[in-house]
Model the fold of this input.
Amino acid sequence: MTRSLIKPLLLSVLMVVCTLGMRAQELNCTVEFNTDQINGSNKSVFETLQEAVTEYMNTTKFSNAQIQANERIECRMFFTIKEYNDGVMSGDLQVQLTRPVYNSNYTTTLINFKDTKIDFAYQEGEPLVFSENQMESQLTAILNFYAYLFLAVDFDSFSRRGGQPFFDRLAQIVQMGQSSGEMGWKAFEDTKNRSAVLASFTDQSTQCIRDLLYEYHRTGLDEMSVSVDKGRANITKTLPNIETVYKANPMSVALSMFKDAKLDELVNVYSQAPQPERETVYDLLYPIYPTESTQIEQIKTGKTK
Done:
């Protein structure tokens, strides 16, 4: 083979390798640690931890999903560490997941959730090791849980119940967490812990929230670039799924997760809707979220701040 033929061949191989590399990771995750409540000037352990978690979330291959580099799932993890004693940290974790809307510059929020059961041990420089079959540490279990939740909800928003393989994986992670006895995993320990989050998406009585994820985003928001009225009508059509969840379990964390991710957006979606449609949505949402009367009233009146 001549040199002139070898060079193009090598370039082709390199392009294939690079393409596979771009498909290797699924997440583009921003990680932050707030340690303002921790006394002491030497906080290098938290800087090291932030770098380690960022690398873990953005370089671990969590699945076989084929995702291009420019399609990586946008997410954020904001840790607030409130206590740090003998290498054990505790506090809160705010997680956010967003997704682009077709044919627009708009990104919509899929998850905006605070986990108040964050408690894990970490020593500076400790490696974070990914494992599918065992719980390497409480920290990596938490990271794995949210990585797969991001994947599950994102995939559900693009195809009906398309995130099922990731929900199956979440069930395994929760089971291992429960066996460990660590905080945040026990069933019925808390209505908003990680076990409750999983249950809200997978229990027979409330899993219709997953159908809402698909219909709201794929047949609703994604269609609004073609027809605002048609896309909004599809959102209106799927909102009764929230009522179904409420009737089945008024304490389901799915209700607060939907509210925190979507209520502001719904105000904008219905700002130009016909009065009967706005009143339909108001009548559905107000009994479920009476403490959010200001925003829900805006849906009814069609006025935004």
In short: Residues 1-23 have pLDDT under 50 and may be disordered. Strands lie at 27-34, 73-85, 88-100, 107-121.
